[in-house]
Amino acid sequence: MSKKSRGPNFCASEKGILIELILKYKDVVENKKTDAVTIAHKNEGWKVLAEEFNSLCSFNVRNTDQLRTCWDNLKRTTRKDKAATKKEIFLTGGGRPNHLPPGPLQEQVEILLGPTLDGLANEFDSDGQFQESVTASNKVKEDSAEILPTIVLLDAVPGYSTVVIMNILASSLWPLINV
Q1: Burial of 64 (0-12, 13-18, 19+ CB in 10 A)
Q2: Taking every annotated instance into account, which residue ranges of this chain make up the domain Myb/SANT-like DNA-binding (predicted)?
Q3: DSSP 113-141
Q4: Taking Cα atoms as reference points, which of 60, 85, 72 lies closest to residue 29?
Q5: In the chain, N or C terminus with fewer CB closer than 10 Å?
């Protein structure tokens, strides 16, 4: 067995090209089936993707194993960051959130992963509220946002109400309107 030699790191433009090609060949590359015919079809798809990647990218010549590893690492880091963001949302203590907003490459990977990134909805799980907020935030991204002034009453002390005027996206009110 020959030892693999380490190649140069992928730069952001190479990752962007890879993500665009994954989007183009998503049905072949991200197929969940594991039978012999599908695996052969996936390997052929990765070869075509590698040829197209090398024709578009003038930096380094990459083989299919390097591209697969890069794609797996992108998926892994996206899932890890999404889990850290979810954990950060449920922490108490106030203050500024520690998580950074996702970059443009990570947002594209999130779109490609789709529902496999968020997991299955479970009405009996305590994360149900988080799933609803994720669904609402995804809907806000898809829809054109209209901002409405809204009055919110906060009952911090019994008998006293604090009035707060906020600007809320109209599309984030859809769960309240449909109920």
Answers
A1: middle
A2: 6-82
A3: HTHHHH----TTSTTHHHHHHHHHHHHHH
A4: 72
A5: N
How big is the CA angle at 149 (ends 143 and 155), to the nearest 5 degrees? Answer: 115
Sequence ranges of the domains in the chain:
12-119
pLDDT in tens, 130-173: 556 555 555 544 444 444 444 444 444 455 444 444 444 444 44
**pLDDT tens digit sequence for 90-128:** 776 767 767 777 788 888 898 888 888 877 777 776 655
Dmax (CA) of the chain: 77
Share in percent of the chain as helix, strand, coil (round to 5)? 60, 10, 30
- Residue holding tokens 């898809």? 142
For 12, residues 6+ apart whose C-beta sits below 8 A from its C-beta are: 105
